[in-house]
Amino acid sequence: MTRVIFLGLPGSGKGTQAAVAAEAAHIPHIATGDIFRRHVREQTPLGKTARQYMDRGENVPDDVTIAMVRDRLAAADAQPGFILDGFPRTLPQAEALDRLLGELDAPLEGALYLKVDPEVVVRRMTGRRVCPKDGAVYHVESNPPKVPGICDLCGTPLIQRADDHEEVARHRLDVQWTQAQPLLPYYSSQGKLREVDGLGDVAMVTARVMAALGLRAG
After folding, report:
1. Is the pTM of this model over 0.70?
2. Is 196 a domain residue?
3. Contact by Cβ (8 Å): 151, 134
4. Which CATH number goes with the domain that contains 104?
5. Which residues are catalytically annotated?
6. 88 in any annotated domain
7. Quick one: which of 207, 208, 186, 182 has its CA closest to 197?
8. Which residues fall within 8 angstroms of residue 189, CB to CB, at 6 or more apart?
9. Which of 8, 61, 90, 165 could pair with 12 in a Cys bridge, judged by C-beta atoms 3.0 to 4.6 Å apart?
10. 207 in a domain, yes or no?
């Protein structure tokens, strides 16, 4: 499969696995967060529109998001295929994506759901620590710095992002799960859903993802 979306809760590891799978398939890993940042940074008409909502703390309307996704999927490097990460997040977005891909004559081939227990996700999110200087990311359990609380690269004290505090993390998970849950039966009814166990070390999960997508590493 070369036209695939990755689904999963924040902290499930889908971004990491999507990047690995895209490299193995020689197709772009398209993270919608990156698309937003590029349009805003380059001050494109879509970026300026999105910025107005973002500055007010509001969600960017689906039609603006879809237009950005259309622009990216129409690029030359996405013609052989793509792995889309971070979109769709709701059922209306999924339906809009299907219409868009129909117009591009590039129907979706698969939807891979990386299944991880929410309590595991909470531990992953609340254990993250970030260097405010160079952006290096650590985890107090799975990837601790050599000196607790200090960045290995530059010696700067690490911080915990506001959205990684437990109360905020649980709220984010509740909201996103409520929005995303209808996507599973939607893609299952199309025969496109592939569910992969996201527990275990990165290499173990990668092997499951590769098998589900019919890919080989390297």
Report:
1. yes
2. yes
3. yes
4. 3.40.50.300
5. 14, 89, 128, 161, 172
6. yes
7. 208
8. none
9. 8
10. yes
